[in-house]
Amino acid sequence: MTGSEGTSSRGRRGHALAALVAVCALTALALVPGTAAASPISCKGHWGALSGDLKADVDSDNAIGIAFACSQNVRGFTVVTNRDIDVFGVQAMSFAPQDHAPGVLTSCEGDIPGRGISCAADNAKDLIKAGYFVRSGIGFDVSPCVYDRSSAGALTASLIVSSANGQTFGPFPLKAPKGCTKKYRRSEAAATKKAAKSR
After folding, report:
1. What is the pLDDT of residues 9-66, one digit of tens each?
2. Is the dihedral of CA 41, 47, 53, 57 positive or negative?
3. I need a surface site. Which of 138, 139, 153, 183 has the fewest CB within 10 A?
């Protein structure tokens, strides 16, 4: 299932998660990069090509997969981006690092279009265990590494997590795939050249 353009994926936790998206987005903008390193929770992750079963969950030609893991148990998470998200998978699964056994399943919500999604388990007592990696997917109108005149640059994505006692930590930058920035600059130069010729 996906959250798709023109809709808002909202459930009984919708207002709380929507508020969390807004708070986390403001937090991501306000905090200086690097402050996350001082957090009692550390998280590392990346985004890249969508793979596996996530392809069926995110109906977009410009979809990406997000994966991360944290050093402590977390209750939920928010992904904040610098580009509008146009579609997203409404569930994210956690997996054990050794044998990939499934862990907690979270439900994801957010506005479409919007600059973030938040995910949490339906049962407030369920936690994503430390070291478990989480996978989810989101999609965009324009490829995240290609020039988009409505965006300031190539896609950047950050993670903010909610701890077991409800505190929020982050933002933790999600690493972009190698060559993304270079690809963006090439496409930006091509678009600028094309625009100049059309004048």
Report:
1. 433 344 444 444 444 444 444 443 444 446 789 999 999 988 877 777 898 999 999 9
2. positive
3. 153
Q: Write out the two tokens for 171.
A: 């933002």
By the 8 A CB rule, do 31 and 23 touch? no
Per-residue pLDDT reduced to its tens digit, 113-135: 999 999 999 888 899 999 999 99
Sign of the C-alpha dihedral, residues 119, 121, 127, 132? negative
Q: How far is CA 10 from CA 73, 84, 194, in A?
A: 25, 18, 41
* Of 51, 134, 64, 44, residue with least CA distance to 97: 134
Judge whether residue 6 has pLDDT over 80: no
Instruction: Give 38's DSSP letter.
Output: G
Confirm if 91 and 109 have CB atoms less than 8 A apart: no
Q: E-strand spans in the chain?
A: 2-3, 8-9, 43-49, 63-70, 74-85, 87-89, 91-95, 102-111, 114-120, 133-139, 157-163, 168-174
Please answer whether residues 170 and 39 qualify as being in contact, where contact means their C-beta atoms are separated by less than 8 angstroms. Answer: yes
Q: Describe the chain by its helix, strand, coil percentages, rounded to 5.
A: 20, 40, 40
**Which of 15, 56, 22 minimizes the C-alpha distance to 160?**
22
Phi-psi group of 22: left, alpha or beta (phi > 0 → left; psi -120 to 50 → alpha; rest → beta): alpha
